[in-house]
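Appendix B. One record, verbatim.
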Amino acid sequence: MADISKSKLYTPIEGIQQLKDALVVLVKTEWNSDIVDELEQGCLRVFKQLDIQSKTITVPGAVEIPFAIRQSAANNWISCFIALGCVIRGGTPHFEYVCQSVTQGITMLNIELDVPIILGVLTVDSENQARERIGGIHGHKGEEAAITAIKMMVLNKQFKQSNR
C-alpha cells in the first residue's frame, strides 16, 4: 500500500514560477461520480492555490480517458493531463480489463506525447477504500495528482530548455 509519509511529494516545488501560462486538462469519468468529483475538487484546490489554469473534460468511463487525451493533445497549448476516475472491483473480471486498459493507454500516451499525463484513477476493492483516498486515512489522491502534475510540468519545461 502506498504511504504518503514515505514520499517527498509535498516538499516545496521549485520552478513553479515557470508555469504562469500552464494549462492542465483534467479528464474525468462519469462512473462513481461522487468520488471522481471529489478527486477533481482536490486538483482544483491545489491549482487555485498556485494560480494554475485548468479545464475539465468528462468522458463516460475509464476506458475512454486515453481517447479523450489523445484527441485533445493536438492542442499545443495544453501543458499536462490528469486522468481521474474510480474503478471499484465487482464480481466479474471486468475490473481487471478496465484497469489494465486505462493504465496501458495512459502509459502509451506518456511515451507518445510531449506533455505528461498523470494517472489519477483509483482502482479499489470497495467504495470505502475509495473514500479513504479522497481525504481519509490515505490522503487525497486528487491533491496528490495535481502536485505530481505541477512537478512534471516543471521537469518537462527543464527537459525542453536543456534540449535547445
